[in-house]
Amino acid sequence: MANHKSAEKRIRQTIKRTERNRFYKTRIKNLTRAVREAVEAGDQVAAELALKNVNKNFHAYSSKGILTKNTAARRVSRLSKMVNTLGNVAA
Predict the structure, then answer these.
(1) Sequence-distant (≥ 6) Cβ neighbours of residue 67 within 8 angstroms
(2) Which of 34, 57, 80, 90 has the fewest CB atoms within 10 Å, i.e. is most exposed?
(3) Long-range contacts of 35-40 (CB under 8 A, 24+ apart)
């Protein structure tokens, strides 16, 4: 257990940050999964809708400092590539 007041505060901060990070990490995984599942199902409309949602959220997260700008761009790019290949297969 913490022996100093500052150590007690650090414990409280760590708990709060861990909870927040877990929320965003789960949210990112769920958004990504929605796009992947739509692509696997071959549903062009659902995939594009999910991709639009991912793009919006990932860039919002990058402005909040949860994801870096390049990470958000890279992930959105890879998902966009998946959705675009779905469109080429359908055509």
Answers:
(1) 28, 58, 61, 75
(2) 90
(3) 35/79, 35/82, 35/83, 36/79, 36/82, 39/82, 39/83, 39/86
Kindly report the number of other CB atoms within 10 A of residue 80's CB atom. Answer: 15
Q: Identify the pLDDT of residue 89.
A: 62
- pTM for the whole thing? 0.83
| DSSP string for residues in 47-74 | HHHHHHHHHHHHHHHHHHTSS-HHHHHH
3-state helix, strand, coil in the chain (%, to 5): 90, 0, 10
- Token duo for residue 15: 């708990």
Compute CA 54 distance to the chain's CA centroid, rounded to the nearest angstrom. Answer: 7
